[in-house]
Design goal:
By secondary structure, this protein is an alpha/beta fold. The protein contains twelve helices and twelve strands. 37% of the residues lie in helices and 19% in strands.
């Protein structure tokens, strides 16, 4: 299979142009056609010779994202299920905020982390996405927004999969997104979320970026976290926290902790007190997420009253905390739900 053109950096395209006997700036022109003019074919690159365009057609391909289904929420959230070249499917979400448009991207087909409250892990991990397949989701979203005269203002890597288990492709994607000659997304407008892959947290700390880091924590201690997140048995709670302290010491940046509240499981005041104790010396923010009901899972949502109690305990202990504004609740916008329904339909 021909490689995806989105998998290549500006420098790699410049090197390729030189290999073809062309000046290096041709690689820059290709990069501009891809990310600034956002064309969908090499034949549209009209300032390149027909010979060079043919070479591009012969050696590369664009990522094809076939729209299987699309749901639009009353709040402006749009969720897509895209089909890939190998008959797998992935989800991408456009979320409209008062500060702009945020894109939630997927980094893997399926997920092997096994969080017991999440639909993404149903069916396990099928494969990693290439950097270009992650890039294509943002480009596709930007093409849709182009029609409204709007742009992608932020990216969250919180879709299906564990980005730090697809580390190299995720980092290449990030470098492509922040390139000043491409989409030029500000580093501080990008957040990558991990379930706590300890070796990758250390690597990410040493990257020297300004990209935000979020951790799916979901429990204040080792025993409960292991029940909710099997990955905790591989990377225990204390090791995760130690790697985060290293990250903070190295970068000086605030860490976001994502905490999914599950009725009667991890949402009591004593859980909040314990969490506050763990986080008391860290520069951090806690994002409380009322868990979406997944039919295949047994968990229920925390009551509204208990959500506010949990928030109050954290705030009273000096922890910066917010409750995530729910988006797309009417269109099955929880990670993996559309794909799970699609897989079930295909199986039938």
């Amino acid at each position: 299979m021909k490689p995806f053109i989105y998998d290549f950096t500006l420098e790699e395209l410049q090197a390729w142009a030189v290999e073809q006997g062309e000046p290096a700036f041709r690689g820059g022109q290709i990069f501009e056609w891809i990310y600034v003019k956002r064309v969908n074919s090499f034949d549209e690159m009209t300032n390149l010779s027909k010979t060079l365009r043919q070479k591009l057609n012969d050696q590369f391909q664009f990522v094809t994202l076939n729209e299987i289904t699309k749901f639009e929420s009353k709040d402006g959230t749009v969720k897509f299920l895209f089909g890939l070249h190998d008959d797998h499917a992935i989800e991408t979400v456009i979320m409209k905020h008062n500060y702009g448009n945020s894109i939630c991207v997927t980094t893997q087909v399926g997920c092997r982390i096994g969080c017991t409250f999440c639909a993404s892990t149903l069916g396990g991990l099928k494969r990693d996405l290439t950097a270009g397949e992650i890039v294509a989701q943002v480009v596709k979203a930007q093409q849709i927004l182009d029609e409204r005269g709007e742009r992608v203002s932020s990216i969250v890597i919180m879709g299906t999969g564990e980005p730090f288990e697809n580390y190299d492709n995720t980092m290449k994607f990030l470098r492509l997104m922040i390139h000043e000659k491409g989409l030029n997304i500000g580093q501080r407008h990008i957040t990558v979320s991990t379930s706590g892959i300890v070796p990758s947290i250390y690597k990410f700390a040493d990257e020297g970026t300004q990209i935000n880091l979020a951790i799916s924590i979901h429990a204040p201690n080792d025993a409960l976290r292991s029940k909710l997140m099997p990955v905790n048995r591989r990377y225990p709670f204390d090791d995760v926290m130690e790697s985060l302290r290293y990250y903070q010491a190295k970068t000086g940046r605030r860490i976001s902790f994502e905490y999914a509240l599950i009725g009667g499981v991890n949402d009591q005041p004593e859980h909040a007190e314990e969490l506050a104790s763990v986080l008391k010396d860290m520069l951090c923010h806690v994002n409380l997420i009322p868990v979406n009901h997944v039919p295949e899972r047994k968990y229920v949502r925390t009551s509204r009253n208990d959500i506010f109690k949990f928030q109050r305990v954290l705030a009273d202990n000096g922890i910066n905390v917010t409750i995530r504004r729910e988006q797309g609740h009417d269109i099955a916008a929880a990670c993996g739900q559309l794909r799970a329904k699609h897989m079930e339909s295909k199986a039938r």
